[in-house]
Specification:
Length: 301
């Protein structure tokens, strides 16, 4: 059974000049933690706003728990929790006041659904009388998630919830999502962080409004066909220029301290890598490595 079904969603802005979504289709299973992975401007926020009934698509159809996003938007709004990318709670209200307000909108109370937010709210409780605008980024994130959960939604839409948050808070947040999933809450989360893809059951890689691939993170990595090398030299700027000018090189991208390089000839190994290249006036460090989701994303582009 599917909680979310999107069928050929198309959305443009500026009278059709900018394409935000280009015939996007995907589905999310009941109780699944599904990740929409892509950089800024890929179309993730536009997609979330359509599915949460805040935008209308130019064409295509979508349902959330079998409710149509256009004709049954009121029913959808009653069963979803939405956490937008930008902090949008009332900054002049305290933590507790924000939570009470959002509970009252759905005719419930903090007490009634406290079990849903307990693991999250325990971090916020010492600051319950602090105004939301004075919280740290990680605390704002936790408060926003509590407000999205307080009415016991069937589906959570989380749009880039960990952007700009410190690594410890990011880790804690994903641990919270795993616990929420155990309550059979369907979660659709978007992120520009490729390392977070591995924490999802399935992912969609999206770029320029198009979905490039949908599968489990493991299967996407398994489908990577090229031999991948990590290459390093003393002058990395010169190295990337030289690599990209070689006909033997298929792709070359900067990844931290190394370049990730693939060659047109798949028979070449790390041992004979240098011998197959044009002569270079500097030494290379080369090792064969396994790809990750970011390598797969770059290859699909």
């Amino acid at each position: 059974m599917y909680s979310i079904i999107a069928d050929n969603l198309h959305k443009t802005f500026d009278k059709g000049v900018i394409t935000a979504l280009d015939n996007v289709s995907f589905s999310v299973k009941k109780g699944e933690l599904f990740g929409m992975i892509g950089p800024d401007g890929a179309g993730k926020t536009s997609l979330f706003r359509i599915l949460t009934t805040l935008f209308l698509a130019d064409s295509g159809n979508a349902t959330v728990e079998n409710f149509d996003v256009i004709t049954q938007y009121k029913e959808i709004r009653n069963i979803i929790g939405y956490m937008p990318g930008k902090f949008s709670l009332y900054q002049d209200l305290t933590v507790e006041e924000n939570l009470e307000f959002f509970a009252s909108l759905f005719n419930t109370t903090i007490k009634e659904n406290y079990h849903l937010i307990k693991d999250i709210y325990i971090h916020l409780e010492p600051f319950k009388n602090r105004r939301a605008g004075k919280l740290s980024g990680g605390m704002k994130q936790k408060l926003a998630l509590c407000c999205a959960l307080i009415h016991k939604p069937e589906i959570l839409f989380l749009d880039e919830p960990t952007t700009g948050v410190d690594p410890v808070s990011r880790k804690e947040f994903w641990e919270m999502l795993k616990r929420l999933q155990q309550l059979n809450i369907t979660i659709l989360v978007s992120t520009p962080y490729m390392d977070e893809a591995n924490l999802c059951d399935r992912i969609a890689l999206i770029q320029s409004g198009k979905i490039m691939k949908i599968d489990t993170p493991l299967n996407i990595i398994r489908d990577y066909k090229n031999t991948l090398f990590a290459v390093k030299a003393e002058n990395m700027l010169q190295l990337i220029k030289d690599m990209r000018n070689m006909s033997v090189v298929h792709s070359c991208f900067a990844f931290g301290d190394y370049l990730h390089v693939t060659l047109n000839d798949q028979s070449i190994s790390a041992e004979n890598f240098v011998q197959k290249l044009p002569e270079l006036p500097y030494q290379l460090t080369v090792k064969e490595i396994k790809p990750d989701i970011e390598d797969c994303f770059m290859a699909l582009m």
